[in-house]
Amino acid sequence: MKIRVWITLVITVLLVCLSSYGFCSGTDQLKRKDFPVLLMYHDIKEAEINGFDVSVKDFSQQMDWLAANNYKTLSMHEFVECLTQNTPFPKKSVLITFDDGYDGITRYAVPELRKRGMNATFFIIKDRIGTKLTDYSYLTEQQIKELSKDPLFSIQAHTLTHADLTKISAEQLQDEVAGSKKFFTELTGTQCETIAFPYGFYNKSVLNAVEKADYKASFAVSDLGLYDHEAKFSIPRIYMGSIMGKNNMKLFKRSVLNYKNIPKEAFVERFGPLQ
After folding, report:
1. Cα dist from 207 to 131, 175, 185, 229, 267, whole Å
2. Per the domain annotation, does 155 fall within a domain?
3. Please, where are the H alpha helices in the chain?
4. Has residue 6 got a pLDDT over 50?
5. Is residue 29 in some structural domain?
6. Which of 56, 73, 176, 229 is at 20 to 30 A from 109, Cα to Cα?
């Protein structure tokens, strides 16, 4: 009888301890505060042109600060493993992500990341691959394949055309979501398990489509709510633009240190001119 009571007591203590740790389980108990710090970059340039650019100098300093403060950069595989296997995120961990697939990734970001042995995930737009805009070029298929072979990096979906998923038909929505998953899985030969929403926008229909396509997680920018879905399908990320390098990285440091307590209003897109 005493042994049974002792075992019950031990199990109770363990459950209390584990529930306070912040597990990344795929259940409706998951809260925003349970996720590690999530950063969202776009392009890295020698000198910023747009507000969503980050200079090589600023990016290097930001990575140095993370390393100096003992942050562990997670691979997307590690992130998804936490979600699916109910294992805790490492303390002081961060998921570094890039949206769209600009060639500043290979020119500047990748060398800085490799230098420090840091992981990153690249969310790519299928129809922009190998194309160019004024002042911006996109990665080629060959560059994407090469990145996917490096264990530090992961290639994931950012839809087929970068359409606002909240404003298209149900058929188009499913094509953008499921079609991009299929494309990037076949292109890289590795499993595409996550997706980032164009413009960071989503609604209940978008989350339904993502879950139907069997994604393990999906990423936004704004924190628009759960729409009756698990938190892992609408994870907000800190928008990394030129403003993050100002004033000795004051906003960057504050955002990283306080990610779990950032108000919803702070999760916003920062397009437009330099700030």
Report:
1. 29, 14, 20, 7, 18
2. yes
3. 2-19, 56-68, 76-85, 104, 110-116, 141-148, 170-188, 204-212, 246-257
4. no
5. no
6. 176
